Amino acid sequence: MMNNKNLDIQKNLNYKKFLEKAIQFHKKREIKKAISIYYKLIKKNKKNIQLLSLIGIANLQIEKNIIGIEYLKKVLELKPNDVSALINIGNGYKNLRKHDEAIKYYNKAINVNPDNADAYSNKGAILLQIKQFEEAIKNLNNAIKIKPDHFFAYTNLGIAQKNLSRFKEAIFSFDIAIKINKDFANAYNNRGDVFSDLNLNEKALEDYEKVLKLNPNFDYILGKVLHYKMILCDWNNFNLISEKILNKINNGYNATAPFWLLSISDSLKYTKLSSKIYSENNFSVKINNKPLFKYNNKKPKIAYFSADFYNHATLHLMMDVFKNHDKSKFDIFGFSFGLDKNDEWKKEVKNYFLQFKEIGNISDSDVINLVRDLKIDIAVDLKGFTTNNRSSIFSNRIAPIQINYLGYPGTTAIQNMDYIIADELIIPKKNFRYFSEKVIHLPNCYQPNMHKRDISNKKFTRNEFDLPENGFVYCSFNNNNKITPDIFDTWMNILKEVKNSVLWILRSNEAVVKNLKKEAEKKGVNSNRIIFANYLPNNEHLKRLSLANLFLDTFPCNAHTTASDAIRIRLPLITLMGNSFASRVAASLLKNLEMEELITFNLKDYEKLAIDLGLNSNKFQQIKKSFEKAVSKSSLFDSNKFTLNLENVYLKLLDN
After folding, report:
1. Rounded Cα gap, residues 477 and 535, in angstroms
2. What is the rounded CA–CA span in Å between residue 422 and residue 591?
3. What is the C-alpha to C-alpha distance for residues 450 and 405, in angstroms, rounded to an integer?
4. How far apart, in Å, do the first and last CA atoms of the chain sit?
């Protein structure tokens, strides 16, 4: 029979055995198995600091932050100055986006141990989130001073510098992080983002491909790699990567940012699922989601949110709406974020708002409080999931009515986004189920346009742009990343059939020239028949468009502003209409013109129509004449009428 001393020894041996087993599970990231054992052990060891700490950290790792914080606070009850517990509680509050609480605990850790690099580093990461970039840099530099090989701190330092447009400093910081840890995917990803901002797209792609190699499941990296390959018109493994993206989306993975998906698939199923995954991953935790009730403002307050209040396609469409809003009936507000470009467009548009606020360096929580304090009735998001968006503020409800409009051609799947504005062709009733928002139909076309645009008086000739004087000029002035291998193959088939023709497209980078010329030669087309156009000031670009004969649309992501530009200068446009919002925009414009004969529904018919118009001069002239007449009588550029229709939508929503 064992004596009490031997029993105690046996108990200790069993405890150590099971604890070691749990810790091994923990190290192998089998967190739930580890927690199961920790919970059994804690029943008889309720004041064991090590166990309490392990349970707290494990719960944080499986996103059970409130439970994790609870156990870590029990550690502090037994050991008030436990720096690890203080930092991890801060991490829990960081995960919950309770930034003030997180900073409080990081500060406590720093007060206990001023030489703890992680406390400064994690505090810097929080300050990054709330856009206090200079303060973040101070804390991250403190972390680096204490621990010169702190690659996390160097990476976050680079992110802060990037946000302040200190791009050389940011690259230097990421370089050091990579030198310290050559396998740190996050540093490569963020350095790639800086290269992207500097239009060094080939370098950006190199970094993104390195991330994919290091961690194939890194959030959104498959989509990012394919998107940047498309920017360069590098279609190596295009179909393979596209298929992988769709398979991963189907299985619930963060394979791509929703916006990038629009250029490779017109599937409504996948566009909705991609947005759902993205929204749940980024906006599942609400900062302050209290319900908002309608305000009793004397005049309804309408607020527009965008990063594009400058010489940008969105403002090219929206300028007259801001200008024409009936200020006797509405108070109009503008909230600007993103790149700081104080050009002539921005200077003008500021005049059309009662208040115009720059919120680029203001945290989400502060923006939410600001908008709510202003008692905004309707908040209109003009960005959606496009670049430099602030969808996070809409996920936390800043106004009683929230609308997804214009910038992002698809559903956001954000719980608090109430409506999306479209028209009957863009989102027919049969497709409503693929949109989380309630669909609002504007009469005619959903797209606004300025009544008049500045078009250069220069007298351009085809010779100035290396275009054949008497040949047939097809053009497509969409961004190069909208070109897919399938649509390019179709274009090459058209050129082969229409002998005296060329294709005129944008040159966004030199890689595009090299890659497309190579693809043309592979298809049996003389690469000199692809004419590359440099970027011009917008008024000159509109003028040169008139030198072309026919605009060929891209698919599955159509021309949007670019399509209305072509229509404005009476350049006939052929489109291929698909299922998604993004693949139906040009068709909506053509329907507005009553020129449905230029809408096709498959690549074969698209190709056939383009060839027919290129070969049959009489038919082309007839189409061109009809097109010019249709544009002149269309309401597409009647911005007063459009604004009135939009205001009527707002009033109906407010009356509900």
Report:
1. 10
2. 14
3. 17
4. 81
Residue with token string 């503008």: 334
Sheet bearing 419-422, strands edge to edge: 355-358, 331-336, 301-306, 378-381, 401-404, 419-422, 438-441
Cα 399 from Cα 624, distance rounded (Å): 46
Q: What pTM does this model have?
A: 0.93
Written as one string, the DSSP assignment of 585-641 is HHHHHHHHHT-GGGEESSHHHHHHHHHHHHH-HHHHHHHHHHHHHHHHH-STT-HHH
What is the spatial distance between Cα 577 and Cα 155, in angstroms, rounded to a whole number?
Answer: 44
CA distance 107 to 90: 9
Residue 205 in this model has a pLDDT that exceeds 50:
yes
Distance separating alpha carbons of residues 562 and 238, to the nearest angstrom: 25
With CA atoms as reference, report the closest residue to 574 among 623, 535, 616, 632: 623
| Residues 6 or more apart in contact with residue 460 via CB below 8 angstroms | 540, 543, 544, 546, 547
Which residue is listed with tokens 């049959």? 616
Structure tokens belonging to residue 557? 């992501």
Element (H, E) at 504: strand 501-506
**DSSP of 205-260, one letter per residue?**
HHHHHHHHHH-TTSTTHHHHHHHHHHHTT--TTHHHHHHHHHHHHHTT---S-HHH
Q: How many whole angstroms separate alpha carbon 152 and alpha carbon 184?
A: 9
DSSP state of 351: G
DSSP 556: S
| Strand boundaries in 341-428, DSSP class E | 355-358, 378-381, 401-404, 419-422
- Which amino acid is residue 553, in one-letter code? D
Neighbours of 500 (CB within 10 A): 11
Residue 571 gets the label, from left (phi > 0), alpha (psi -120 to 50) or beta, of beta
Residue pair 87/109 in contact (Cβ under 8 Å)? The answer is yes
- Tokens 């990081």 belong to residue: 106
* 144: amino acid identity, one letter: I
Q: What Cα–Cα distance (Å) separates residue 649 from each residue in 137, 153, 304, 578, 655?
A: 46, 49, 15, 27, 10
**How would residue 262 be classed by pLDDT, with cut points 50, 70 and 90?**
very high
DSSP-assigned beta bridge partners for residue 306: 336
What is the C-alpha to C-alpha distance for residues 592 and 415, in angstroms, rounded to an integer?
32
Which of the pair, 613 or 21, is modelled with greater confidence?
613
Report how far residue 472's alpha carbon sits from residue 312's, in angstroms, rounded to the nearest whole number. 30
Cβ atoms of 443 and 643 closer than 8 Å: no
Answer yes or no: are the C-beta atoms of 490 and 518 closer than 8 Å. Answer: no
Place of tokens 């208040």: 355
Confidence band of 202 (pLDDT split at 50, 70, 90): very high
The whole-chain average pLDDT of the chain stands at 95
Question: Residues 451-469: pLDDT tens digits?
Answer: 999 999 999 999 999 999 9
* CA pair distance 212, 203, nearest whole angstrom: 14
Name the residue among 627, 471, 475, 619 with its Cα closest to residue 548. 475
pLDDT at 330: 98
Give the integer Cα–Cα distance in Å for 304 and 355: 11
Under the banding of pLDDT at 50, 70 and 90, the label for residue 656 is: confident
What is the rounded CA–CA span in Å between residue 321 and residue 461? 34
Q: In the structure, what pLDDT confidence band is assigned to residue 97 with cuts at 50, 70 and 90?
A: confident
Task: Report in angstroms the alpha-carbon separations of 118 from 151, 449, 623.
Answer: 11, 52, 68
Q: Among all chains, which residue has been given the structure tokens 């992080």?
A: 177
pLDDT one-digit tens code per residue, 600-643: 999 999 999 999 999 999 999 999 999 999 999 999 999 999 99
